[in-house]
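Q: My hope is that you can spare some time for a protein that puzzles me. Underneath my words sits a plain record pairing an amino acid chain with its backbone structure tokens. Those tokens are not coordinates but codes from a learned vocabulary of shapes. Thank you; the sequence and its tokens follow:
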Amino acid sequence: MSQNDALAYSNSGTRNLNQGNYDQAAADFTQAIELRPNDAGLYVNRSSAYCGIGFMRKDASSFDRALEDLNHAIKLNPDFAAAYSVRGSTYSLKGEDDKAMEDFNRAIQLDSNDDNAYFGRGILYVNKGEYDRGIKDMETALRINPKHQDARRSIETARTLQKAGIEHL
């Protein structure tokens, strides 16, 4: 097996992930990891497949598997901002907001252009009723990535909740 095979599995995993074929994506990334076990990005990608499985099946153990992969990715590359950002999102899905906030902050510290970290942190702020901080973070995400439709929609929702006087979610 070669590096080209690892790339082929990775590309297939990415396609399957984007199409919502999470089981096949996880299998593809597992094959790529077997060929390139020190590639932190492959663990991050497989964790996204596990999160998709967990979300679709409401399976908490899949989120735990995702966290194992993300912890391993961070062990391989402690300065990999995307790993912290995805781990923050995974913690958020599990309702572990304090850990999620720590990871989003670390991701932003490592990469000030990580739109997903700003978005995730913004959502956490809004959920706590800190609308101004949340909207500011989501606007930053949108400035970094003008195509970030979730940020665009969430800003409007946050403004509506704030005007309605909702203290927190």
Observations:
- Residues 20 and 102 are 28 Å apart (CA to CA).
- The chain has a mean pLDDT of 95.
- The longest helix spans residues 40-57.
- The chain is about 80% helix and 0% strand.
